[in-house]
Amino acid sequence: MAEEKTIITLICERAAEVDSVMNENDTLKDQPNVKVIKFPCSGMIQPLMVETALKAGASGVVVCGCQIGDCYFREGNRMIKERLLGGRPPGLKANTDRRRVLALWLSRKQTDRFLSQTKEFVSFVSSLEDGGAKAAVPKKAPPKVEKVEETKKAEKVEEKKAEKAEATEKAESSDKDKE
Known about the structure:
The protein is α/β, with parallel strands linked by helices. It contains five helices and five strands. Strands 2-3-1-4-5 form a five-stranded mixed beta sheet, with helices on both faces.
């Protein structure tokens, strides 16, 4: 097996809680080759950062933001997701090996899921490093980011629910005013 290279994790500080599982040098305790860089919001992460990390020798990059629809700063997670998928400029360059990029959308309480999926991704990237048959047919590919269109549909449903709730609230308020 090839020597484990660094995996860079670009993570929203409001996504999975990682402080308790990090060393003082900003690596994960049980995966010292995973370097963690925190951002106030995943919307601040640019595709160029992912590309730069890969060009600098990182074996892979994990981008982790809040759950879609639950961004503290409204839409930051959706913006980086769309950029990674090519649905919003600036996107990843065409020559970027997307197999080496993992996107996760997790809540604060999903630290265990973050750790397990990161560990799985490290194994997957290691199989790419080994080359040959392993790279062609990995045991398990990393989880894929769902399509932007599905997210947009879900957002529209949520908007309609919010509009209905607002209309109901206004109607109840006007009924109370009449009394």
